[in-house]
Amino acid sequence: MKLLFLAILLLSPLAAHSADNTNLLDRQWVATGAKGKLDYKETPKGERIMDFSHAGYMGGGVALPTLPVKKEVAPSGGDDTAAIQASIGEVSALPMVNGFRGAVLLKPGTFHCSKEITLTQDGVVVRGSGSGKDGTLIEMTGEPHTAFIIEGPELSFPKETPANTFPIADAYVPAGTLTLSVKDAKGLAAGDAIRIRWARTAKWIQFMGMADLVRKRKGKEDSPQTWMKDNTTITIHRSIRSIEGNCLTLDVPLTDTIDAQLLDEPAVVIKTPAVKRLSQCGIESLQIVSPSHKGTLTAGKNISVALKGDSEDCWVKDIVMRETLNNVQVWGGCRRITITGAHSYHNSTVEKGAGYPADISIRGSQVLVDRCSSHGLGGFYVATLNQAAMLNVVLNCTFEGEGSIQPHMHWSTGLLIDSCTIPDGRVDLINRQSSGSGHGWAIGWGIVWNGTVKHLQIQMPPGALNLTIGCKGEPHKTHSKESFFSAIEPVTPASLYLTQLRERLGEAAVRNIGY
Q: What's the N-to-C CA distance of the chain in angstroms?
């Protein structure tokens, strides 16, 4: 029986000391105010639902470009890998014109590809002639591999010195904020690129209830697990929009709190020199087909697209993927990525073993997954992984099958699941405890907005919020006592992401991304 919960809140002693979670029942976290603009409620410490509109290509609200065709490739009937890669090389050698080089057009037909095809230079796109039956089909052959890789450089930064390092003065920096104060801003200026760094200390790990994870093993000795090593560093890349005194206003909100009481040393702002990331690359308008997978997930597998290294402002658009696993991967150094119109189809299943596949896996930040779908196979539709996954959005997607959207492990922060339909599956924003390698709390500051889901499993972390707003669904079994369900009739605005984007950049920004 479907249950419509306004709110059910069960708090453990640890959760009771979190982000003022004891007074959630009467809060309307965001709604359209009297002036027609979104009105945000805050916790007493200043946390609020963050502005997710910064997710996507160029930081949101910018249309994906259409690059001119500079090289065409027709299928040969044999292995086409080398011919496609050579054409990419020719276009990569062209001069940049307005930030772009051009597109390699794959003509209609079937291309046989036995190895990965890689883009490593700015402003290059591989474009098929459509993802339908009369378009371009990439048939993966040979040993398991990744069909397309967009691979940026691995960035390095100068050592921290007193001249480039600015201790944060605030005792508490709330999640969702655009501002923070340093002890002395002399040497910083508007427009500077910065890194914000602090450590995940033993005190914080204890506060999160993750210091004593143990896996119970039937007939064997229990196995202690490590959720996160003491003093693991978290680094967030931002730019300074403005400075007033010692108060910095950032270009993009922070996705987690910085609590000085849980640190051994102050958090710092580090002035960062300009660095060059790979940018303006895309994979478009084609179909990728793989032989059916056999075995567990650890067996060799074909993957559709991977974005690696330090890449930004890249995209995956209008692709159909059949029988590939872990279809689109966004790795930790990537940011401001749009994945739109990516559709996964699975007939085969993966044998039970070390994990299940994720159609879209996100380790990066400011990723927009827009109007995508999955069909079949009970894996993860979208999964975030590790603490580099910050401020990501899943918008207007439909996922069919008994799978789930599930942040996977090690404390990702800032995830909006907006207007998605999962008729037979789940959304899990949970503590995964001793699963896997000790995945523990997988997500904080996660929002499920106006979704239709068969099962919702939403748990409340210490020091953070996970919320459902305007969602229809049944509560799924919980793995711990801290749970928050708010499954009611749909609310306005219909889409939080699009409304935030409209307010920040105007109606044209919404039209630019096809709404």
A: 35
Q: What fold does the segment set 165-272 form as a domain? A: Elongation Factor Tu (Ef-tu); domain 3 (2.40.30)
Radius of gyration of the chain (CA): 23
> How is residue 47 written in tokens?
């946390």
- Chunk the chain into consecutive blocks of 10 residues (it has 515) and report each block's average pLDDT, rounded to whole numbers: 31 33 54 88 92 98 98 98 98 96 98 98 98 96 96 92 97 97 97 97 95 79 85 95 98 97 97 94 97 70 94 98 92 96 85 73 97 86 92 97 87 97 93 81 94 91 90 69 58 95 98 98
Quick check: helix, strand or coil at residue 202?
helix
Structure tokens, 399 = 């996922």
Residue type, 135: G
Is the CATH number 2.160.20 carried by domain 15-153+277-512?
yes
Strands 282-289 and 311-322: parallel
Verify cis geometry, omega within 30 degrees of 0, for the bond prior to 493. Answer: yes
Collapsed DSSP state (helix, strand, coil) of residue 498? helix
Burial of 347 (0-12, 13-18, 19+ CB in 10 A): exposed
Residue 163's region, left for phi above 0, alpha for psi from -120 to 50, else beta, is: alpha
Task: Please give the structure tokens belonging to residue 111.
Answer: 């291309």
- The answer to whether 427 and 448 are in contact (CB under 8 A) is yes
DSSP, collapsed to helix, strand or coil, labels residue 205 as helix
Domain locations in the chain as residue ranges: 15-153+277-512, 165-272
Task: Give which of 65, 63, 66, 72 is closest to 136, Cα–Cα.
Answer: 72
> Cα separation of 91 and 96, whole Å?
10
pLDDT score for 472: 86
CA distance 198 to 166: 12
Q: Burial of 231 by CB count in 10 Å (0-12 exposed, 13-18 middle, 19+ buried)?
A: middle
What are φ and ψ of residue 204, in 5° steps?
Answer: -70, -45
Tokens of 452: 């239709």
CB 491 within 8 A of CB 508: no
